[in-house]
Amino acid sequence: MAGVWEFLRGGDKPPQFDMGIAHTVTLTKRNQVVSLNHQGSASGNLRVNLTWSMRTSDFGDLNRERGGLFRKPFGLFKPELVQAQGTAMVNVDLDLACMYELADGTKGVVQPLGNFLGAFNESPYIQLSGDDRFGSGSGETIYINLDHKEQFRRLLVFVYIYDGTPAFDRTHAVVTLYPSSGPSIEIALNERAPEARSCAVVLIENNTKGELTVRREVKYVYGFQSELDRLYGWGLQWGRGYKSKI
């Protein structure tokens, strides 16, 4: 009992749990598909999160490196990885979005542009948390209500660079799917795709047997939503949109 009270008073460190690699599934070119049903994740809330960061050397912060050159002579060859949190640090605006096709044939998109934020407890059962323009620690999140999975035919989660430098390989973007149970699923967007403005990240499909699968796509295009639409045959009508200035 003495040990318990010591822990409650903060006199001891909380126990450390080794989560293990099995608690995160990383989708790669060799390991492209995972079944949500097989890992017990095909119900509840599926949280899809986008975060990104950039190396300080990527946006020309050379004065700091030069000042530290004599203190750490090898530091110049190992750029520090920092979280993107402001326009002064990063000139890029990544957006997370999702095209959907429902079982009844309804098609649409959930995205920050145009304020198409969707709905969680009613059709399309997909909702965007909001628009994060600066890459804060929480990033952007889409919530998918898998308790209505029978309503889904296919969902295409994609990322596009609304504004700023079109360089996915320097934004170090990561899309992570967090099911309500089972391991998380991670997809890194770190391949070189010069001038690409959009990337299809994952395709979530509900097959004829009612199985939900998540397939890594990571296909870059040089345009925006309409080009991804043509690539996957969605058939939506698109027009150029703009965000209001902050």
Task: Provide structural commentary.
The protein is mainly beta and 246 residues long. It has one domain: Lipoxygenase-1 (Sandwich), CATH 2.60.60.30. Helices cover 10% and strands 36% of the residues. It has four helices and 15 strands. The strands form three sheets. It has a seven-stranded mixed β-sheet with strand order 1-13-12-3-10-9-8. Strands 2-15-14-11-6-7 form a six-stranded antiparallel β-sheet. A two-stranded antiparallel ribbon has the order 4-5. It is globular, with a radius of gyration of 21 Å. The protein starts with a helix and ends in a 14-residue tail after the last helix. This is Tellurium resistance. InterPro entries: TerD. It comes from Streptantibioticus ferralitis.
Features of the shown structure:
single chain, Lipoxygenase-1, mainly beta, 4 helices, 246 residues, 36% strand, globular
Q: What topology emerges from the helices and strands here?
A:
Blueprint: H1 2-8, E1 24-26, E2 33-35, E3 45-51, E4 53-55, H2 62-67, E5 81-83, E6 92-102, E7 107-110, E8 118-119, E9 126-128, E10 140-145, E11 152-164, H3 168-171, E12 173-178, E13 184-189, E14 198-206, E15 212-221, H4 225-232
Parallel strand pairs: 1-13
Antiparallel strand pairs: 2-15, 3-10, 3-12, 4-5, 6-7, 6-11, 8-9, 9-10, 11-14, 12-13, 14-15
